Amino acid sequence: MRTSDNGVPPGYNVQLTTDAQHKLIVDVSVSKESTNSHELLPALDRMKERLGQYPKEVLADGDYTTRESINGAVDREVDFYGSWAETINHRSSRGNHPDYAPRAFKYDTGKDEMICPEGKRLLHKTTEEEKGLKVGIYVAQKEDCRSCPKRDLCTPENAQR
């Protein structure tokens, strides 16, 4: 596994999938990959194979939070909670097409909702503080995104893939 300083010592990347409610480890995976970004969807699929169903929700840290993981969780009808590794200053680059960048979403002050360029409403979920700024987090209905013909323009695959 290559390290951040371009070294290549022997090493493995271990992934544990847990059931927080019952405090159980439900899956273990070991790879030589230096990043976790491709590990979430295979873990969800192994959970379905072993347990007969996908979990209702998944919580993951920033390295797992990619467009691929988010879209894959939506396709599997799993609520995904994750953190973006990028800062507020980089958020404007999220869309694949400028018509679907965050600035293209309109804010409804009366209802505290965002409206996507396709007219779908995103509900206010929470407010977080990031570097002294309050950031509202808005979420769309799964079905709205899943059935949207413009989905690939709005939520593209990670540009590194």
CATH superfamily of the largest domain: Ribonuclease H-like superfamily/Ribonuclease H
General shape: globular
* Radius of gyration, CA atoms, in whole angstroms: 18 Å
Oligomer: single chain
Main sheet summary: 4 strands, antiparallel
Helix content: 10-25%
Q: Structural class of the secondary elements?
A: alpha+beta
Q: Which CATH class of the largest domain applies here?
A: Alpha Beta
Query: Low-confidence runs (pLDDT<50, min 5 residues)?
Result: 86-93
**Major sheet: arrangement of strands:** 5-6-7-8
According to CATH, the fold-level topology of the largest domain is: Nucleotidyltransferase, domain 5
Strand element count: 8
Number of helices: 4
Report the sheet-strand fraction.
Answer: 25-35%
- Alpha carbon gap, first and last residue: 19 Å
Average pLDDT, rounded to a whole number, is: 80
**What is the ordering of alpha helices and beta strands?**
EEHEHEEEEEHH
Name of the CATH architecture of the largest domain: 2-Layer Sandwich
Number of domains: 2
